[in-house]
Amino acid sequence: MSTEQRFAGAATLKEEHAELENLLANPDVHADADRARKLGKRYAELTPIIKAYDAWNSAESDIEAANEMAAEDPDLADEILNEVPQLQEAADEAAETLRHLLLPRDPDDGRDVLLEVKAGEGGEESALFAGDLLRMYLRYGEHKGWRTEILDNAESDLGGTKSVTVAVKRRGNGPAEDGVWAHLKYEGGVHRVQRVPVTESQGRIHTSAAGVLVLPEPEETGEIEIDPNEIRIDVYRSSGPGGQSVNTTDSAVRITHIPTGIVASCQNEKSQIQNREAAMRILRARLLAQAQEEAEAEAEAARRSQVRTMDRSERIRTYNFPENRITDHRTGYKAYNLDHVLDGELEAVVRSAIDADEAAQLAAAGDD
User: Hey, what domains does the chain have and what are their CATH numbers?
Assistant: First the structure.
């Protein structure tokens, strides 16, 4: 397949981009805020592709023009042709950028997410590690300029985290590949820690684990409809570490989706109404994830990511405190800056998963 054929789809996207630009310039379109938001989001997704496509077209045109001028003027041919390698380098660079941008995208890449961290085997040490992971993701969100909101957090006796749910949102629109899901979808799985627990009196290194689940959050415009007759809502009294009462009212909320048996609960807020709203957000995200998994199974499609697995029991990463080492078992990434990673400098680890995913897709495209 020639480069022109491979990039034929970009020409169609350029037409769509121009149509969107015209629509967004029409004041009447902005009367419908939801439509304007969706059009703006699509325009932002296409913009980097069109820029790369225009850069590639421009470089190819310059090469063609240089060759024509050299053929027409033999006296200047050598001087003109000396510029061709530089022009070709620019064309190749633009083509490589465009190849990456045209890779099939996970349709959820631009979505915000709900991220859940749960303590696993290891008792109190596991809960403390889950708390470390929570802080890592909150700090990573700060580095990325995202907004984070803790919807529900059950703390352990020593200040760790038994279970926590965090909403992570991007500020404004932008390319899908810059979305929250595009980065955090690789975090789902079992995270293992090796260190001397605070409860260990003999100084022995223990291994424990915490689980991370990342769910794309549905759009607020009714993407996931929940029939009020198909849910059961229970309220109960919130509790904190050691069973100590957090408040004296039945403000905690547990919602059960009867047809699927999926349960979502929240006790973080003092208001029952706020806890109910948060639990509904969690329930909608879990229902969306289940619907997507069922659709993929029915279509017998390949997993969206070559790196991320839907097997939530998979051990994806090890955090070794004595050696200050972090290892990603899927990509082979290894670094001795665990302290920095736990302080939110997670980008290199995430990038290793993104790069491995894209490399697999490029290899598959090359075989076609």
Answer: 3-101 (1.20.58), 113-302+311-359 (3.30.70.1660)
